[in-house]
Design goal:
about 190 residues; mainly alpha; Hypothetical protein af1432; 11 helices; about 65% helix; about 0% strand; globular
């Protein structure tokens, strides 16, 4: 029996993010998901090494890889639209869940249980979800920093709003990342070496 699941996932590279914004460089959900995976792994590792937690950084990274997979079907709905009001937000959550279930329906039975907690956000590992969500926000902030460094003022308000949201996150690992790692995202390649 043939399955379209992985071929459908490979289409993440065709779904661009930041659709309402003038971008100096397009970003698709495949590359965004990779960055979120790297950041989620880092946040959990920071928490384990510096704060004594015992969470799976590898599992957080895998969750992050799949965190926007429903957007293969829905596309990336811009944040101002997605959160315009409660009715739109609630409707979009329903659309996301339908899309997630549709993706899962493409799997053969023997893989269904493995991928359900990765695709279906309501089944995600609850203790790791805050780290993945924080990594998603950090990725958005990094995008804003990159765009602003290219002189693109289009991202000024987004950067400020996202930074305020991140500063309100109650994860100490996020605060450590902001202090110790985020400043280097403003450096040029020559300054990084």
């Amino acid at each position: 029996m043939s399955s379209n699941f992985f071929a459908m996932l490979s289409r993440m590279k065709y779904i661009n993010r930041w659709g309402l914004m003038n971008n100096t460089r397009e970003e698709n959900i495949a590359e965004h998901s990779l960055e979120v995976a790297i950041l989620a792994h880092a946040l959990v590792t920071i928490s384990n090494k510096r704060l004594g937690t015992e969470l799976s950084a590898d599992r957080a990274a895998v969750m992050a890889i799949f965190h926007d997979s429903s957007e293969i079907i829905t596309g990336d709905l811009p944040t101002p639209v997605k959160y315009y009001n409660d009715d739109i937000r609630d409707s979009y959550k329903q659309i996301e869940e339908i899309s997630e279930k549709h993706l899962l329906s493409m799997l053969p039975d023997y893989l269904y249980d493995e991928y359900t907690p990765l695709i279906l956000s309501s089944d995600a590992d609850k203790e790791l979800l805050p780290y993945v969500k924080a990594a998603d926000k950090l990725s958005a902030l990094i995008k804003c920093i990159n765009e602003l460094s290219m002189g693109n003022r289009e991202f000024t308000k987004a950067e400020r709003t996202i930074r305020e949201t991140i500063e309100g996150i109650e994860l100490e690992a996020v605060k450590i990342f902001l202090r110790e790692f985020l400043p280097s995202y403003e450096l040029t390649l020559d300054e990084l070496n």
